[in-house]
Amino acid sequence: MNRNETSAFSPELETYLQEAEPSQLKELSEWLRIPSVSTLPEHKEDVERAAAWLAQKMTSIGLDNVQIIPTGGHPIVYADWLHAGTGAPTVLVYGHYDVQPVDPLEMWTSPPFEPAVRGDDLFARGASDDKGQLLAHVAAVEALLATSGNLPVNVKFLVEGEEEVGSGALTAFVPAETGKLAADVCVISDTHILSPEQPLIIYGLRGVWAGEVTVRGPSQDLHSGMFGGAVHNPNQAMCALLARLHDDAGRVAVPGFYDDVQSLSSQEREALAQVPYGDEQLLRESGAPAVWGEQGYTVTERIGARPTLEINGMWGGFVGEGFKTVIPAEAHAKVSCRLVPEQPSSAIGPMIERYLQQIAPDTVEVEVRTLQHAPATVVPLDVPEMQAGARAYARIFGVNPVFSREGGSIPIATIVQESLNVPILFMGFGLPDDNLHAPNEKLHLPNFYRGIRVGIALMEELVSS
Ligand SMILES: [Zn+2]
């Protein structure tokens, strides 16, 4: 597996790491056999078993204060090692031990909870998301404690069993336990890198707002032969309103939407330009006939670093087979936004409602209801911890990581960042084709072993940052 490009560590640690690979794989496989599907009540005991397995592992390698903390939902696992001495930074490692359901089961080449190695890949539900990525950090700590009895930094592990169902318990736990969880940096390995050879640090995740627009007209559905042309059709009014949510340049037309949005720094634009992703790949992946979006920005910038507004669904009147000549009483649309930092996610719903009510004719009534919102996360590229992360990747992979902002959202990351006031390092070891949440989820094993090494290198680099 050709992982000796760089002699990153002492000969003793190198030897340990090479010899430990079979047992690291065996232990990960053992954990993956526990079907900790958090959303299915029939797996509640399995979820608890997965938490217990992790706690037992943490105890066995010499971590302190190992706790399985009961919650209203699935338990949180906590452990720490705080003997690095005064002045040493404290690293909070976040992960989750719950997994997604496995259906459609018949699409799996081997059973999802019977881990199977084919080629360089380990196939099992949770292999990449997130048991394998989290266990890499546990194994990194284990390697250092086993060979030197010491860690260069203080370490705290915070592992939840509800990531796949909305992180309910952790959302309340983190703000309530800021003392226990206090740290200098939080590391999250629940993301992917670009390829087996190209590491990636995600330094921003967008926030989200989602809601529902309702347009009301007549008090009941009407016959178009009797009322058509004489009352305003809510479907028609809805189309006219939604059409004005964007201007011709692809910008969101809602007044105030961009007020708090900071323009991209030249450093950021340069970093994003390094990401090997462009129009061609976007068209291939999406199957769309052409690229569309806000003028003046590359697709990488549009996806990761600019806010957007999407119309996700529309309904109203008669949508069955055949036809019914009706003027509906109401029209509905689901609308959502991806948000960048500084955009207050709670203000988006009222802002859209104000705009739509202002432009709506007095022939209809408009209402906007917020269903969900969470702010964005972004970590400045020049914070020392970010640079330490980059050096750790470079030492093990032999190439510098690229930096990117992702389109998605991880609400718990924002809560950790805001409650604990720490930068977040999204340093993943997964790959884009790991089949997360899909059949045949896999973990590329060379990345697992490299992930363990990056975990060690990161602890060392954080000391000198
Ligand atoms: Zn995950």
- What is the approximate shape? elongated
The DSSP helix count reads 14
Question: First CA to last CA: what distance?
Answer: 31 Å
Task: State mean pLDDT (0 to 100 scale).
Answer: 94
Q: What is the level-2 CATH architecture name of the largest domain?
A: 3-Layer(aba) Sandwich
Fold and architecture overview:
The longest helix has 22 residues, at 11-32. Strands 1, 2, 3, 6, 7, 8, 15, 16 and 17 form a nine-stranded mixed sheet that branches. This protein has a four-stranded antiparallel sheet with strand order 11-13-9-14, with helices on one face. Helix 1 packs antiparallel against helix 3 and helix 3 (127-148) crosses helix 14. The protein has helices at residues 11-32, 44-60, 127-148, 168-176, 178-181, 224-227, 234-243, 266-273, 279-286, 299-304, 345-359, 384-397, 411-420, 445-463, and strands at residues 64-69, 76-81, 90-96, 116-118, 121-123, 154-160, 185-188, 200-205, 207-216, 222-223, 308-316, 326-327, 330-339, 365-374, 377-378, 402-406, 424-427, 442-444. The chain is elongated. The protein folds into two domains: 11-205 and 376-463, Aminopeptidase (3-Layer(aba) Sandwich); 208-263 and 307-374, Alpha-Beta Plaits, CATH 3.30.70. Helix content is 36%, strand content 21%. It starts with 10 loop residues before the first helix and ends with a helix. The protein is built from 14 helices and 18 strands. The chain is an alpha+beta fold. It binds zinc ion. Zinc ion binds next to helix 3.
Q: Topology, pairings included?
A:
Elements: H1 11-32, H2 44-60, E1 64-69, E2 76-81, E3 90-96, E4 116-118, E5 121-123, H3 127-148, E6 154-160, H4 168-176, H5 178-181, E7 185-188, E8 200-205, E9 207-216, E10 222-223, H6 224-227, H7 234-243, H8 266-273, H9 279-286, H10 299-304, E11 308-316, E12 326-327, E13 330-339, H11 345-359, E14 365-374, E15 377-378, H12 384-397, E16 402-406, H13 411-420, E17 424-427, E18 442-444, H14 445-463
Parallel strand pairs: 3-6, 3-7, 7-17, 8-16
Antiparallel strand pairs: 1-2, 2-6, 4-5, 5-18, 8-15, 8-17, 9-13, 9-14, 10-12, 11-13
Zinc ion (ZN) binds near residues 130, 163 and 190.
